[in-house]
Amino acid sequence: MLILLVPMGIMGILTPYGTGHSPIWFASGYNKGPEFWKLGAIFGIIYLAIFIVVGIPWIQFVMPLLG
């Protein structure tokens, strides 16, 4: 189930250097450190909510069809 989180961008919000473009945004000063972590927490909660609301029912729907 965690493989669904990768396309949603979960790695980019875990750390300032988690994805390829993150060091550019972070080093340029576009987002300051505390602001980056605050936005990361907000978007992490949003991604988790989407995963729970959409992903878990989808897995429960697909699993019986697979086997």
Automatic annotation (TrEMBL):
Major localisation: membrane
GO terms of molecular function: transmembrane transporter activity
Family under the similarity heading: Belongs to the SLC13A/DASS transporter (TC 2.A.47) family. DIT1 subfamily.
Organism: human gut metagenome
Cellular-component GO terms for this entry: membrane
Membrane topology, as annotated: Multi-pass membrane protein
Stretches that traverse the bilayer: 36-59
UniProt xrefs under InterPro entries: CitT-rel, SLC13A/DASS
Keyword field: Membrane, Transmembrane, Transmembrane helix
Keyword Transmembrane helix listed: yes
Identification of the protein by name: Anion transporter
Subcellular location: Membrane
Organism lineage: unclassified sequences, metagenomes, organismal metagenomes
